[in-house]
User: Fold this.
Amino acid sequence: MAVTLTTGMFPVAQLPAAQVVTVRVFLANLENRPHRGTVTVSRLSGTGKERLRVEELEVPGEDARVVELPSEEVEGHTIEVTVAVPVDGFGAGQLPLVPGVAVVSRFTGDDSTSILQWISSDGFVPVPVPEASAAATGGTG
Amino acid sequence: MRRIKQRLVLTRARGGPIIRIRRARRQPAAPEPEPDTTAATDTPSDPAGAAEAPVDAVPEQPEQPEQLAQPAQPEQPPAEESSQGLGDHRPRLRGLRTTGLFTVPADTVMQLVVAISSLSEDHHTADLWIRRVDGARRDTIFFRSLEVPAHSVQRVTVDGLSGQTVEIDVHLSSDLLVPTAAVTQFFPADGATVVALYKSAGDFILV
Assistant:
């Protein structure tokens, strides 16, 4: 069984050419056994959504996995990050995989990076996608 | 004079009875029903609209400091509906949600962007209010009822709110509609856009 969490649509900054903006989606595993989750990133296109990425990740215990979206896909766009994560954590109702999103700027002059925006797991809200779909996109590894 | 505590048991459609305990006023032992407790139903937002019966006098209580009658508390949603976060991952976006008051940063070319994203396969509606604090008042400066087709996004951009204190309220017809808001700043010189403020879906709380 899985739960689907989404950020909703949010704008990604667009900076001058010397600064490259990317988006990183994190899935952190808080437990010591592997879990699988699905990351879906969509981009606003007109009034519709254009799917940029769908990745199913296996996250080893006490580890994290990152999906990075390049500047040409996200910079200056409005995107939405949706994750499907299992709900069978050790604790009742606990989520073993915790999502997070970082909008990162890299200054090409000295290769330094800075975080422009961070969406923590609190910024994700659960949405009731159909059970069959949720089961297909998440679950314990 | 005896002090008598009245115990009013009010009924409502759900959530069990409201038990309101009120200090009696200085009066004889057999108190008369209060004139403001004659309404048949109790509306939580209307403290005066309390039901009358049954009223049963509680035996005399020890002397306690005089207290004013406590108004009925507004109906609180059950705990599982008021909390939001990963600890409780049941969907509950539907209904009236608000960001509360926040201040739009004061700078040039600031835009407030509100987006309603649909993850549904059906058509839904969302009502959007933007309210601005003006002195002691809160004025609605924008209202729109949005039609959100399946798997699409409706976006509203409002200019001219730089430095203003505003509140965004949305009424969602489905748990599959996800609201977000952002304040963006545009720099015409180099075409840059910076996100000055972001309100995630989790920042819209149920009211």
Notes: Helices of chain B lie at 79-82. Chain B touches chain A at residues 84-93, 113, 115, 117, 119, 149, 151-155, 175-176, 178-180, 182, 184, 190-195, 198, 200-203 (CB under 8 Å).
